[in-house]
């Protein structure tokens, strides 16, 4: 994480704002777990045309494990076959990834 934009003071402020707003890992929380978020991730990766400094809605607070899972399975492969950032379902059987077409359905 030692390259632009992550070395800028603008990113550092944005990261702190997101972690203050959402201190718990989004993906873990969807799975019914409580894990402290330590990483702020772009919902749309910069490498795929995402804004390097999006609004807080364009960012996710994640633990290191969930961030690594998303980065290796989605970001580096420019999306995957099913288009999901995160694997798994919540306690009701709904996908935990907000990009999934079934996310949020009752």
Automatic annotation (TrEMBL):
Pfam families with a match to the protein in the record: HNH (PF01844)
Keyword check for Lipid biosynthesis: no
Record has Protein biosynthesis as a keyword: no
Region Disordered, residue ranges: 85-106
Keywords: Endonuclease, Hydrolase, Nuclease
Stored InterPro entries: HNH, HNH_nuc
Membrane-crossing segments per the record: none
Record-level Gene Ontology MF annotations: endonuclease activity
Stated name of the protein: HNH endonuclease signature motif containing protein
């Amino acid at each position: 994480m030692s390259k632009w934009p992550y070395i800028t003071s603008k990113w550092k402020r944005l990261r702190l704002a997101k972690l203050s707003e959402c201190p718990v890992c989004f993906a873990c929380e969807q799975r019914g777990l409580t894990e402290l978020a330590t990483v702020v991730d772009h919902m749309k990766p910069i490498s795929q045309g995402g804004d390097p400094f999006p609004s807080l809605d364009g960012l996710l607070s994640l633990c290191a494990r969930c961030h690594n899972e998303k980065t290796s399975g989605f970001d580096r492969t420019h999306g995957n076959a099913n288009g999901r950032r995160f694997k798994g379902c919540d306690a009701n059987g709904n996908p935990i990834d907000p990009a999934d077409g079934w996310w949020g359905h009752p």
